[in-house]
Amino acid sequence: MKLLHIDSSALGANSVSRELTAAIVARWQDNMPGLEVTYRDLDNNPLPHLTGQVLAKADPAVAEAGELAIQQFLESDVLVIGAPMYNFSVPSTLKAWIDRVAVAGRTFRYTEAGPQGLAGGKKVVIASARGSIHGDNAPTDFQEAYLRQVFGFLGITDIEFIRAEGIGYGPQQRTDAISGALAAIPAPLLQAA
After folding, report:
1. The predicted structure's pLDDT at residue 132
2. What was the pLDDT predicted at 148?
3. Distance of alpha carbon 158 from alpha carbon 191, whole angstroms
4. Residue 6: exposed, middle, or buried by beta-carbon count in 10 A (0-12, 13-18, 19+)?
5. Residue 31 CB partners (closer than 8 Å, separation 6+)
6. Residues in the chain where the model's pLDDT stays below 70
């Protein structure tokens, strides 16, 4: 079984989403002997944003990095993604990665009946960290709704969020939010992956 671990926070050691993804991956490793983990740090090694030059594959190194990103995605059974909320959405580095894996003909296609996801059968666990409190389905949440839509479009329906909210409200709220999120991390189910 292959797990792709992605972090996108720009906060390094101070990142709540990085702390959560590390705990989630550790839980999977403890429960799944032989789990193969691939790690991508989109802050330290970002993919260039999608441009005409990138689409034209004008730079072979950039084209190779994009191909590696989609191969890692396609080969994974489980994705653990650190997605902090930045300005009500996701970090631009995570969006740049999504732009590399949402590729017509490889992870989705258009049919006469509409779009069809081609990347189903995966599990996605998203560590969501938010400075404020938004709750479920809040009109200010363009983060979780966006990620559900993107992965659903690609055919992935097994999506789970581990959320730490209100971490910007003060040290005690931060501690409580992290503790609550860590406690919410379930043990992986063999049938889920």
Report:
1. 86
2. 95
3. 11
4. buried
5. 187, 188
6. 189-193
